[in-house]
C-alpha cells in the first residue's frame, strides 16, 4: 500500500531548468516587483489623496491596485528567496497559506473587473444619472462582494486541497503553490477538486466574462450612436484600458483553470502563470495611466512638476 502521509514540505522546481541563470532571473523579477509595487501603490495613493480622482472609476481602480500588490507579494518574495538562497523548498503550511491568499486575490480581481465594466456601462449609457446610480455605498458594497467572493472561493479550494494525499511525493514543477501542480502531484482521488475548480471557474471566470462582454456590447452600441466624434473618441479611450486588462487577466486565468485534469501541461502552465502573477500586475498601472489625463494631472499636482509630456 502506498504511503498516505502528507509531506512536511514541497520542492518547487519552476526554475530548475534555468538554475544557471538564477541571479539574472532574480534581478529581472526584482525589477518587475519594484515597478509593480511603485505603480500600484502610486495609483492607490492618488485615488485616496486627490479630490478629482474620488470617483467610482478610481475607487475601483485603487482596489484593483491593492489586489495586485497583495497578489504579487504572495508569490514574488518567495520566488526571489528561492533564487537567491539556492533553496527551493517551502513548508506544507506555507504552501497551503500561499494557495489560499493567491486564490483569494485572483478571485476577487475577477469579480472587480466585471464591476469595473458595469461602472463603464453606467457612465456611458446614463452619464447624467451616473453619480446618483453609482453611489459610494453601492461601490463599497460591490468591492466588499468581490473580496468576500474571493475569500470564499479560496477557502473552499484550500480545504479540498488539505484533504488530498501525496504519497510522499513533494516535488512541484511550478514557481509557487497553485491548484494545477498540487492536483497533478496528488495520488488520491481529486475528482471533487477538479469539479469544484470547474464550478468556480464558471462563476468567477465565465460568469464575469459574460457580464463584461454584455456590458461592452451595450457600450459599443451607445458609442456608435453618438453624433460627436470627440465624444466617441473619449468614450473608446475610457474603455480601452479596462479591456486590455480584462483580456490579459481572463485569457491567462481561463487557460489555467478551466480545463480537465488530464489536459494539464505544467510546462505550458508555468509560463502562463508568470503572465498573470508577474506581468499583468505590472502592466495594469501603465495601461491605466499611459493615456489617462486625470491620473497624469493628479501626479503633476502631487509632485509639483510635469511628469509626462
Provide a compact summary of the structure.
This protein is mainly α and 309 residues long.
Explain this structure.
By secondary structure, the protein is mainly alpha-helical. The protein has helices at 22-49, 56-85, 92-125, 130-133, 136-162, 179-185, 191-225, 229-257, 266-289, 293-303, and strands at 9-12, 89-91, 171-172. The protein has one domain (9-303): Rhopdopsin 7-helix transmembrane proteins (Up-down Bundle). It contains ten helices and three strands. The longest helix is centred in the C-terminal third of the chain and has 35 residues, at 191-225.
Task: Tell me the layout of helices and strands.
Layout: E1 9-12, H1 22-49, H2 56-85, E2 89-91, H3 92-125, H4 130-133, H5 136-162, E3 171-172, H6 179-185, H7 191-225, H8 229-257, H9 266-289, H10 293-303
Parallel strand pairs: 1-3
Antiparallel strand pairs: 1-2
Helix pairs in contact: 1-2, 1-9, 2-3, 2-9, 3-5, 3-7, 3-8, 5-7, 7-8, 8-9
